[in-house]
Amino acid sequence: MSPTPVALSELIAALGGDLLGGSDLQIAGIAPLDEADERSIAFLANPRYQVQLATTRAACVIVAPALAEAAAARGAAIVTPDPYLYFARLTQWWAQRTRPAAKAGVHPSAIVSPDAKLGQGVEIGPLAVIESGAVIGDHARIGAHCVVERDAHVGERTRLAPRVVLGYGCRIGARGLVHSGVVIGADGFGFAPSRDGYVKIEQLGNVTIGDDVEIGANTCIDRGALADTVIEDGVKLDNLIQIAHNVHIGKRTAMAGCGAIAGSTRIGANCTIGGAANIIGHLNIADGVHISACTTVTRDITQPGVYTGTYPFEENSSWQKNAATLRQLHTLRERVRALEKK
Amino acid sequence: MSPTPVALSELIAALGGDLLGGSDLQIAGIAPLDEADERSIAFLANPRYQVQLATTRAACVIVAPALAEAAAARGAAIVTPDPYLYFARLTQWWAQRTRPAAKAGVHPSAIVSPDAKLGQGVEIGPLAVIESGAVIGDHARIGAHCVVERDAHVGERTRLAPRVVLGYGCRIGARGLVHSGVVIGADGFGFAPSRDGYVKIEQLGNVTIGDDVEIGANTCIDRGALADTVIEDGVKLDNLIQIAHNVHIGKRTAMAGCGAIAGSTRIGANCTIGGAANIIGHLNIADGVHISACTTVTRDITQPGVYTGTYPFEENSSWQKNAATLRQLHTLRERVRALEKK
Amino acid sequence: MSPTPVALSELIAALGGDLLGGSDLQIAGIAPLDEADERSIAFLANPRYQVQLATTRAACVIVAPALAEAAAARGAAIVTPDPYLYFARLTQWWAQRTRPAAKAGVHPSAIVSPDAKLGQGVEIGPLAVIESGAVIGDHARIGAHCVVERDAHVGERTRLAPRVVLGYGCRIGARGLVHSGVVIGADGFGFAPSRDGYVKIEQLGNVTIGDDVEIGANTCIDRGALADTVIEDGVKLDNLIQIAHNVHIGKRTAMAGCGAIAGSTRIGANCTIGGAANIIGHLNIADGVHISACTTVTRDITQPGVYTGTYPFEENSSWQKNAATLRQLHTLRERVRALEKK
């Protein structure tokens, strides 16, 4: 991955941790234990994988104190209380070493309104459009083909990957990362029925996004009908997610790809929502709730905990028999009741 | 939301309705009953929320005749047969007052083929691409970064938000609204298996979309294999929806986000399809069918009605027990039958 | 569809097959049997539709040898061992006849780094961005508004439709087709929890895509965390699919729209995955596995076969009763067991 290897001592100087042995070892990449070679650094966070210590070829393994001895017996080791967190910080340091630095400045092909406000050290990519009244915070990076509409705000050091739409009046805070294809601020889905068909309810709210938020590719966050749709600080959204109008997502909640939150639902802080899970509209979900993948939530959840509603898959012919019986389940219960009465 | 408040009398002059009291009141915004302040107008459409009349701070409430007295007892009121429809029209009027007017003209950075036909009062945004033979109707608005491919048609007063692709030969009628990231006219998914792998079936049809259609962000509508994929007048599609090749959706059907309609399925008029509901291919769905959210439709529906197939979620440990039993459901029925025979 | 009809004899000269009668017939289009007119060619691949032979108005029907006599009795016929494959090849030939040829060259509005390498006969569309170190193979076509980031590779004769993002360091092989809105190489979704919130795990891998791969509109394929996400030769992905980091999809596997494959899952060769089916992370799926639409796969599948887990939909009031009973299914089994003991 990296053209220039780095000495373990340099890595330790940057990230801390106790190094056991091998400070002169040159590291050329980061790898999983079972794919590492003699120039790789690996980590062991889950004790389940401890057996891999015996076979990994990694030059150095990041481990917790309990495994320090075992790791050092086979080669260099970095000892740290939380190896997975250390690994995360290592990937950040590695990315910074190996990726090109941001180039402050406005690409000559970008179309920036004279009424937009650009902070210091801002990078505006090729063919980006920044409309009137938009505000781009210091050191923010706006990728190629992005559209930042009128009066939208991008916080300090937030990065929009190529081809993001940030709708008029919408705001994202500091240190955010928005991936390609994201649409923030499309209209919420609201219509009044009439004899002549649906009459559009213009969506007059905006989208307000806090600091340290990451938003995955092709995810959509609609603007509110009257008040704003709100994503609080530290929320992480994966790809292809739909956040409907007036949803409110609490701090540090994380949501895996392809799920949807329907209109006006309020989700607490520190929740996790599995992939392709859906939550219908106008619900309240408490703090600390964990929704399993592919679950449909149809009523309020008032207590923290793990909630699931995934249809068990099976070999097709078994499924056919069971699914057919499922359609008669209520009748089956009545039959059991009748038997019990006898 | 609005910098310039407006007198209730002016609002009534524009939208009609019977005003009870307060014609000089200045309205600065529209809000839900429970969030309204003394400069807001609110509406009460659902009698369930009637108790909020006593506590709302709204300057004026839009109500049906049955609630006129109760509403007028607490402040100004607008009386109208359908408060929700009135509210929808109010949001439209409000948006028109407060949003910048369209600017007719072609942005100098747009790339418009000399063979494209642009109607009167058309707005073409920055960096849009309009290919040869494309036709843009009067007063249509094409957003930044849109691509209108060769021989595609955009009807009068239809608006494409920034970054929409309208594929070659595809058509959308009048007064439509297409949100960012929509792809109309990508290839349908068709392959013939062969000993050497899949052989592509070129998709030779187009997409034909009627008048008054709204299409949500990042939704995809594929072109037909031979004949066209058809979306009739007044259809409303939310975000992240997949409409496969040769689907036909009847008039005024509405579909919430994240669902998919597989190839060649025909959906009637005046249906509603809940969020994340899926309909498999080659089916016929009658007029007036309502599909609940997250339901999978696997066979024809010939009668209007409400249809559901959502797995009930529950606390994870209960789910585990019930899901395990579900895999033995057919056997359980056999056991009940055996008991009954005794 | 086509302005210029073609004689059947010319069609046979290009595609082969045995023509029975009608070599002078002029064909103006391809149509399904039941929509064909006197200037159309149709095909009959599924014996179930044999009755349509009696009523179709098609000028010529493509049939298997077993139906040659019946087809020739009513008009011209092309006899070929695999009519569906012949039809696929016919659509390709037809598309080539009727669509404008690629125009080699770089559109003057495209922004191509001087450090990018463009092969022979390459077409770069309007407003495309090709970054430093990118390599575009011979006769590849890059659509309008595409972004090919630094060091990304596009193989020979691969076509990117308008508005595709191919992330830095990602590769796609030869003869691929990538539809609009696709995002290849956004970050995988990886974070380490900490007391101060989630800490991002930078995604240091790339995406590697083989030859002859088609990717549908608005689909996302994330880059790997350490190693690459891999899509092997001949894979076909429909629209709005999510492929998470470090997924591996084997040769000639096809996946219909709107499904998701979670992180590090490995899918074999020659699988089919139905629409809106989801596979959770860290699983192994064998070769030759067929997953039904809307199924959630939650554990390894080691044997080829058909696997299903779709909740059966029904009329809403029946569903309510059955779903309520489902929540007590385990208890119901206990009651049956108690009855059996008596």
What does this protein structure show overall?
Three copies of one chain form a homotrimer. Chain A is an alpha/beta fold and 342 residues long. Chain A has three domains: 6-98, Udp-n-acetylmuramoylalanyl-d-glutamate--2,6- Diaminopimelate Ligase, Chain: A, domain 1 (3-Layer(aba) Sandwich), CATH 3.40.1390.10; 106-307, UDP N-Acetylglucosamine Acyltransferase, domain 1; 316-342. Chain A is 15% helix and 28% strand. Chain A has five helices and 40 strands. An eleven-stranded parallel β-sheet of chain A has the order 8-11-14-17-20-25-28-31-34-37-39, with no helix packed on it. In chain A, a hairpin with a 6-residue loop joins strand 22 and strand 23. Chain A is flat, with a radius of gyration of 26 Å. The model of chain A has no long low-confidence stretch (mean pLDDT 96). Chains in contact: A-B, A-C, B-C. Chains B and C meet through strand 21, strand 22, strand 23, strand 38 and strand 39 of B and strand 4, helix 3, strand 40, helix 4 and helix 5 of C.
Largest interface: A-B, 70 and 74 residues
What is the helix tally of chain A?
A: 5
CATH architecture call of the largest domain in chain A: 3 Solenoid
User: What fraction strand of chain A?
Assistant: 25-35%
- Name of the level-1 CATH class of the largest domain in chain A: Mainly Beta
Keywords:
UDP N-Acetylglucosamine Acyltransferase, domain 1; lipid metabolism (chains A, B, C); 28% strand; LpxD (chains A, B, C); Udp-n-acetylmuramoylalanyl-d-glutamate--2,6- Diaminopimelate Ligase, Chain: A, domain 1; flat; eleven-stranded parallel β-sheet; 3 domains; UDP_GlcNAc_AcTrfase_non-rep (chains A, B, C); homotrimer; transferase (chains A, B, C); 40 strands
